[in-house]
Amino acid sequence: MLAKPILLVGAGALGSAILKGMRVAGHVAPQDVIILDLTPGEEAQKYAGLGARLNPGPEVWSEAWTVILAVKPQSWRGAAQILSGNLNTGATLVSVMAGVRTDDLSAVFAPLSVARVMPTTGVATGKGVASLFSGDGKALQAASDLFAPMASTVVLDHEGLIDAATAVSGSGPAYVYAFASALESAGLATGLTPADAKTLARATLISAVNLLDATGEEPEDLIRKVASPGGTTEAALKVLRKEGKGLDELIKAAVLAAQKRSQELG
Ligand SMILES: NC(=O)C1=CN([C@@H]2O[C@H](COP(=O)(O)OP(=O)(O)OC[C@H]3O[C@@H](n4cnc5c(N)ncnc54)[C@H](OP(=O)(O)O)[C@@H]3O)[C@@H](O)[C@H]2O)C=CC1
Ligand SMILES: O=C(O)[C@@H]1CCC=N1
């Protein structure tokens, strides 16, 4: 059972996605949410209109049994200073920040139990992805109760793997959007109108992903079903999968760069 109320600290891009996801999944009522944000955006305001408490005084923060820390890794110590001494000592802290280690969080927030989660912004639709880690069973359960209704969850065996999950999954949606943007630009180069290039690039991406999901087939098998021998797809794949210089190498280099950055952020 998810312990409520929930205190969300930081309602930016990800915090807002989490708010939307809780609204879509319906497992947390707005009345059970307390939001702290320096410049609350549209979703935080909407939540306030639905009954959430927005930027109340410190006397309210200690009501929360689950605290989500969703500020930038660079600003968490400042946020912690403001929060410290005003939280319920029996609460669970769920950090969604890249890079910031459990030991550092515990050193500041003890005796709160700590879990780390690496979600995607896709939680906003109730269909995100979230990688979970905690050495504390109660905190891991809290993180799972919070995210499982709005994400496919993976429990990681050790904390170091959060950097890997961040590189593959947390940052991953941006790689997909970069591909969508590149396909649209390439469509313009073929002579399509901007409107048609946009529609065809997006709809093709979405329908291909739907098929991957619906069939459960391996990507390589699906590629074989598109690429006729001696056909157009094969011509494109020769460029896309050029030995030593193709998409596989590029994606691997990108993911390793993200993993390294995640390791540095702590
Ligand atoms: N965006 C993503 O896809 C993902 C992000 N993450 C992690 O989530 C965290 C947030 O990222 P993101 O949402 O993109 O960043 P944003 O900058 O969009 O959101 C952070 C929010 O926190 C607010 N904030 C800063 N300090 C405080 C404070 N002391 N008290 C209350 N609110 C505060 C900021 O306000 P202001 O703007 O006024 O400073 C801002 O609205 C990061 O740690 C990131 O690593 C993890 C997975 C995915
Ligand atoms: O770019 C970032 O640092 C954050 C973490 C994963 C996605 N966004």
Q: Could you write a compact summary of the structure shown?
A:
The protein is of the alpha/beta class and 266 residues long.
Task: Characterise the protein shown here.
The chain folds into 2 domains: 6-162, NAD(P)-binding Rossmann-like Domain (Rossmann fold, 3-Layer(aba) Sandwich), CATH 3.40.50.720; 172-265, ProC C-terminal domain-like fold (Orthogonal Bundle). It has helices at 13-25, 42-49, 58-61, 76-83, 102-109, 137-147, 161-170, 172-189, 194-215, 219-226, 232-240, 247-265, and strands at residues 6-9, 33-36, 53-54, 66-69, 92-95, 113-119, 128-133, 151-155. It contains 12 helices and 8 strands. Strands 3-2-1-4-5-6-7-8 form an 8-stranded mixed sheet, with helices on both faces. The chain is elongated. The relative contact order is 0.10. Strand 4, helix 4 (76-83) and strand 5 (92-95) form a beta-alpha-beta unit. The longest helix has 22 residues, at 194-215. The model has no long low-confidence stretch (mean pLDDT 97). By secondary structure, the chain is an alpha/beta fold. It binds NADPH dihydro-nicotinamide-adenine-dinucleotide phosphate (NDP) and (2S)-3,4-dihydro-2H-pyrrole-2-carboxylic acid. (2S)-3,4-dihydro-2H-pyrrole-2-carboxylic acid is lined by residues 98, 166, 170-171. The site of (2S)-3,4-dihydro-2H-pyrrole-2-carboxylic acid has 4 residues, from helix 7.
Strand order of the largest sheet: 3-2-1-4-5-6-7-8
> From the helix content, strand content and strand pairing, which structural class follows?
alpha/beta
CATH superfamily of the largest domain: NAD(P)-binding Rossmann-like Domain
Strand percentage lies at: 5-15%
Give me the CATH architecture of the largest domain, please: 3-Layer(aba) Sandwich
- Attached small molecules: NADPH dihydro-nicotinamide-adenine-dinucleotide phosphate, (2S)-3,4-dihydro-2H-pyrrole-2-carboxylic acid
What is the molecular shape? elongated
Overall pLDDT: 97
Q: Ranges with pLDDT <50 over ≥5 residues?
A: none
CATH class of the largest domain: Alpha Beta
Radius of gyration: 21 Å
> In the CATH scheme, what's the topology name of the largest domain?
Rossmann fold
Number of strands: 8
Major sheet: size, sense and barrel closure? Answer: 8 strands, mixed
The total number of structural domains is 2
